[in-house]
Amino acid sequence: MKDACPVNCLCDEPKDWRTQTISMADLETVEIEGLHGEDHEFDFLKVIFRCAPMLNRVTVELSKGFTPNDDWWTKIHNIFMAYPSVECSVDCTPGN
Fold this sequence. Notes:
Elements: E1 29-35, H1 39-51, E2 57-62, H2 70-81, E3 87-91
Parallel strand pairs: 1-2, 2-3
């Protein structure tokens, strides 16, 4: 099982980043390497999708040694399905 973030983790600063709107008007392609399946990573993906109207492709590469479970696949699938115009993929074979 994955380790939880420690109290006062940097991923929680600032406290409202999950609900902020950040202008990413020209962002078209996103490649994320080393995803561990933490809740803040899913929230980060949601922010990207919500704030990048020109987004057309997202590729997620899992962290070495991370094996996603059914809950993880459901979460990522639901995020991807909310934006059907974006080509989304998951690479389960990380480099290194």
